[in-house]
Specification:
heterodimer, A: mainly alpha, about 0% strand, B: alpha+beta, Cytochrome-c3 Hydrogenase, chain B, 2 domains, 21 helices, about 40% helix
Chain lengths: ~325, ~600
């Protein structure tokens, strides 16, 4: 029993958190696929999946079984290595990002000082999933999808970072827990409204969700970068999209909506309710909006969002300097 | 039939027609030889040597013939009744349309079997391209000077020219079909796109172009339609539409179906148009038979055709917005269509393809309570249309995607043979229901919505407006449905009224013959055009005095609309192309026939 030193116990405890969170978000993402279809059904004047299990709740299982038994096909003209690597990157980069999310005061995987920066790094890496997938497929539609991703990424990654700098300046830290703590009295969505809007925009673009799904644009590119993927590899891209939604929602909750703060209810419940509300917003966007042309998205990014984030940063900086005690 | 008297006189003598007079003045007395027909337009035979000049003359004269409306051929070799017509084994006909005169003219060129060649008229009318290819494909007639005279509807590996009279019409007349591995390989090779064969370059200076196959299976091609794009990034340098995957040989089938039993085939030409398709066919057949239908029949036909215009436009609206990336509207428009189909089913007994019009009437009288059902639909729709307009057509993204996208002018539209909403979106007020009223449209009070920019937005908005006008027309039908019979009192009305069958043995025999063999329509030629859901649709029927048509030419609006795509899309983006495809509103069955 000499192995159960306090350090080892702590590590075991951390492992327990890691596993619980990993499983939790995976299951959430899977359930989300069905929730989305049911909600779309509700808004589109139809039922959605309602046959498997009560209210269609077991549709997830049916989908999983179907996906598992599909032929895992790699096209002969594909670059095998990158083709297999791409979906792994898609999943891994997103799952790693969940590391920095503080779910409750006690739950969370890592308490990094560079929390937000870590997310940016992972978001940067996740782009490679699409690029590799699109390139390695050896398919022209996939290539066009990859091309759109690289062009789009350039435009939103720039202001995505800047949009959060106001939050960082106000909290005085990149650490997620510090940021949550700084919102004890006032959620950052109020002073950082511009930052919230632009980050929401960038967040939707990061996940390639409608209306910024130009890289997969069903009607134009017939699914774009993952057109050649099947079976579990497709499943990883597919689940990756929902993991992305989940992640961005959780980040927005943490950065702008006060994280777990809220009266009466336990912290985790607050966190969950806020996240769910954002997820519904994501799905509603998809149900409600047509798809802008990808060059217009880029224009919007450069000409509207980037100046807005810069103005926001300037104003935030000025306000902090004005309010801060002199000589500090 | 009514406008026949107003436009070219009740007499079949057309020699005094101003167009013929003008042609005689320019090309000499003997250059044109008129043929009296029931087509409601001057039909003249001209010499092959004059053809190009005459077409150019007609295109450039004051109040010109702006549009080559149709071009096809007739295999005359088995035709018995050819009075007043010059000797010919094959006839190529050119149907020109003048918007400014609101008149048509048809030029015919007779060809001998040993010398099947005409000069190409692409230089005069650019849309002759596909029509000439179709004639080559179907009849084997050569068009001298055509840059790419290839098959268009049949596969490139096909043997024979199907619309020739010596080409069998039934599968049982062929050897059993076999496909070897080599044959499959050959067929697939033939589908490979060869840019050089289309006069395209693979690269330019430091740019290497990408050739992208859009279709035949693609979510936005609305059926089996293939477009090969020459791309620089996402910019379309050029594109080649490839059609024919939906070809059933509807025109050939007409030559082995009775006049009556062909009606269901027409439903499937523009398969979203339902009974609207029956209308030009029965109008043309009635012109041959000399039937005047009662007012009740006209009103019922108008009402059902307009109802189908609404269902077709609803389908258009949903898919158009879906092509722009809006997932939701299509479900709403489809549930509206279900409401329309409830009425259609109650009245006709079918939903999409009722085949409900008859030569001389309609299949049944309106059922009891039809007006209540129809009124329910009429009360339901306006609020929905307002909702679509507010939620989608006023949406900034929709506007951004469609405004000034894939725009063309009236001139270009006419030169490419564009008709219907796509033409009116350019601002030209040309709606057959107003300009050449048929089936009693002159009695209805409605407006013709027009666009201004001729862009993808106008084409969408205009159809939304057209649905409102159609609702207005249907409301008038409900309010003022005339009493009377649902079939014309005429010996050629098919099927004949059953009450007359059992009077005595003569009536029984007549009834039996007309139902089993079908009616015999007198030998002549007739043509009826209508403002169909997607543009002008017409049937040009040639009867040789038999129970079957000698030649049925179906001119559909979608065919020229697809031909125009490259001219509109050069320099556009791939997403713009998708917006354009959505805004054309075509179905491949209407293109390939």
């Amino acid at each position: 029993m000499s192995m159960l030193t306090p350090a080892a116990l702590e590590a075991l405890d951390a492992m327990r958190h890691v596993l619980a969170i990993l499983l939790g978000v995976m299951v959430m993402a899977a359930i989300l696929t069905v929730v989305e279809r049911r909600l779309l059904g509700l808004w589109q004047d139809r039922y959605g999946p309602n046959r498997v299990g009560p209210f269609g709740s077991l549709q997830v299982v049916a989908d999983l079984i179907k996906m598992l038994f599909k032929e895992d096909w790699i096209p002969p003209f594909a670059d095998r290595f990158l083709f297999v690597l791409a979906p792994a990157i898609a999943m891994a980069s997103l799952l790693l990002s969940f590391m920095i999310v503080p779910f409750t005061p006690a739950w969370g995987v890592a308490d990094l000082h560079v929390g937000i920066l870590f997310f940016f790094a992972m978001a940067g890496i996740s782009v490679y999933a699409v690029l590799f997938g699109g390139w390695a497929s050896g398919n022209k539609y996939a290539l066009l999808g990859a091309m759109r991703v690289s062009a789009q990424t350039l435009s939103y990654e720039v202001f995505m970072g800047l949009s959060l700098m106001g939050v960082v300046a106000m909290a005085g830290s990149f650490n997620m827990r510090d940021i949550v703590a700084a919102q004890q009295n006032l959620w950052f969505i109020v002073p950082q409204f511009l930052g919230f809007c632009t980050f929401l925009f960038a967040g939707v673009a990061v996940t390639h969700r409608a209306p910024f799904d130009q890289p997969e644009a069903e009607q134009e590119l017939a699914d774009g970068y993952h057109i050649e993927y099947s079976s579990l590899k497709f499943g990883m891209f597919f689940l990756g999209e929902y993991l992305g939604m989940l992640l961005v929602s959780m980040l927005i909750v943490t950065l702008f909506l006060g994280g777990w703060h809220g009266p009466w209810l336990p912290p985790f419940l607050w966190f969950a309710i806020k996240t769910a509300a954002l997820l519904v917003l994501f799905i509603l966007l998809r149900a409600a909006l047509p798809r802008p042309r990808y060059d217009r998205v880029m224009q919007f990014g450069w000409k509207v969002c980037l100046p807005l984030t810069l103005i926001n940063l300037l104003l935030t900086g000025a306000a902090i300097l004005l309010i801060a005690p002199a000589g500090n | 039939m009514k406008q026949a008297s107003s436009t070219c006189g009740t007499s079949r003598d057309i020699s005094s027609d101003p167009i013929i007079v003008a042609l005689r003045q320019r090309f000499g007395e003997t250059a044109v030889r008129e043929q009296a027909t029931l087509t409601k337009m001057p039909v003249v035979w001209v010499a092959r040597t004059h053809l190009q000049e005459m077409l150019a003359f007609l295109r450039d004269m004051p109040e010109p013939f702006e549009m080559l409306y149709d071009l096809s051929a007739i295999d005359e070799r088995l035709r018995e009744h050819r009075r007043e017509q010059p000797e010919a084994d094959f006839t190529v006909f050119y149907h020109l349309l003048s918007v400014s005169r609101n008149r048509d003219v048809m030029l015919k060129v007779g060809l001998a079997e040993t010398d099947l060649e005409v000069p190409s008229c692409i230089g005069v009318y650019p849309n002759a391209d596909w029509y000439e290819r179709e004639v080559w494909d179907m009849f084997g007639i050569d068009f001298r000077g055509h840059p790419r005279l290839k098959r268009i509807l049949m596969p490139p590996t096909w043997h024979g020219h199907p619309l020739r009279k010596d080409y069998p019409a039934r599968a049982t007349e062929f050897d059993p079909y076999t496909l070897t591995v080599a044959g499959q390989e050959q067929a697939q090779q033939a589908l490979k796109f060869d840019p050089e064969a289309w006069g395209m370059r693979r690269e330019r200076e430091d740019v290497e172009f990408m050739f992208l196959n859009l279709g035949p299976n693609h979510p936005s091609t609305h059926g089996v339609f293939r477009l090969v794009l020459q791309l620089d990034g996402e910019t379309i340098i050029d594109c080649v539409p490839d059609i024919g995957y939906h070809h059933r040989g509807a025109e050939k089938m007409a030559e082995r179906q009775t006049w009556h039993s062909y009606i269901p085939y027409t439903d499937r030409i523009d398969y979203t148009g339902g009974v609207m398709n029956n209308l030009p066919y029965v109008l043309a057949a009635e012109a041959l038979a000399g039937i005047e239908v009662p007012q009740r029949v006209e009103t019922i036909r108008v009402m059902m055709a307009e109802l189908f215009r609404i269902t077709s436009h609803l389908l258009f609206l949903g898919t158009y917005l879906q092509d722009l990336g809006a997932l939701t509207p299509v479900f709403y428009t489809f549930s509206d269509r279900q409401r329309a189909y409830r009425v259609i089913e109650a009245i006709t007994g079918f939903r999409m393809h009722p085949a409900w019009y008859r030569i001389g009437g309609v299949a049944q009288d309106l059922p009891r309570g039809w007006d209540r059902l129809m009124q329910e639909f009429l009360d339901w729709m306006p609020a929905r249309l307002r909702e679509y307009e507010r939620a989608m057509m006023e949406n900034a993204i929709v506007r951004d995607r469609t405004r000034h996208i894939a725009a063309y002018t009236t001139r270009e539209a006419l030169a490419w043979g564009v008709t219907g909403p796509c033409l009116r979106a350019t601002g030209l007020d040309f709606d057959l229901r107003k300009k050449r009223p048929y089936s009693g449209y002159q009695h209805f009070d409605f407006e013709v919505p027009l666009g201004a920019n001729g862009d993808a937005f106008d084409r969408g908005q205009l159809r939304l407006e057209e649905m409102r006008q159609s609702l207005r027309i249907i409301q008038q039908c409900v309010d003022h449905m005339p009493a009377g019979d649902y079939k014309a009192d005429h010996p050629l009305t098919t099927p004949p009224p059953r009450e007359r069958m059992l009077e005595h043995i003569e009536t029984l025999i007549t009834h039996f013959l007309q139902v089993s063999w079908g009616p015999v329509l007198p030998p002549d030629e007739s043509l009826a055009m209508i403002e169909a859901t997607k543009g002008i649709n017409s049937y040009y029927l040639t009867s040789d005095g038999s129970t079957m048509s000698y030649r049925t030419r179906i001119r559909t609006p979608s065919f020229p609309h697809l031909q125009q795509i490259p001219a509109v899309m050069r320099g556009g983006f791939v997403p713009d192309l998708i917006a354009h495809l959505g805004s054309i509103d075509f179905v491949m069955a209407d293109v390939d026939r």
